[in-house]
Amino acid sequence: ATKDDAKKHLYRQKISEWLNKCQDLFFLDGKYHKQIRIEENSTGFSYEKLFQEYLTEIVSEVWVEDPYIRHVYQLYNFLRFCEMLVKGPCKVKTIHLLTSYDEGSGRSQQISGLEEIQQSLRSYGVTLNVAFSSSIHDREIRFNNGWMIKIGRGLDYFKKPQGRFSIGYCDFDLRPCHETTVDVFHTKHTKKM
């Protein structure tokens, strides 16, 4: 009923915060499964957009299982994911990566790239633990606040940019995507078999 725009804005902000808290409580108390379909050539699906709502301030440990952190562009995808964690609202201290070895001549480049990311993260107070598996197939990202995200294509759902100076090269919100499905669960509501 107020005519004061500043008060309206403040009330809307408070209502939005309250609704978000209620939504969080609903997610944790009810069964939760969210599925996001990323259509072929769609944009607006940066890592920030996909993961931000699950990166609460209590997130301090992250597990990434992705067999395809091998080639240079895949290492850059992982690096961008790590950058998102470092600048996010969370206080990440440890990132665990489980991936597979590059089977060809790129193995040394893969190892040196991961070591460089590891060293760079260290300067931000973040430890990167890397492990390799020859049998890993599934892709999964887990946060220690209970959220688990499964992306059909892992972190590699972006298309190759048209060129080094094309829109979307740097900003993943503007980069066209491959078609994939993202499933979000809370571990409180998953049954281990």
UniProtKB/TrEMBL annotation:
A Pfam family this chain is assigned to: MIT_C
Residues annotated as domain MITD1 C-terminal phospholipase D-like: 44-186
One of the GO BP terms on file: midbody abscission
One cellular component term from this protein's GO annotations in UniProt: midbody
Superkingdom of the source species: Eukaryota
PANTHER family: MIT DOMAIN-CONTAINING PROTEIN 1
Name assigned to this protein: MITD1 protein
Native species: Chloroceryle aenea
Designated gene of the protein: Mitd1
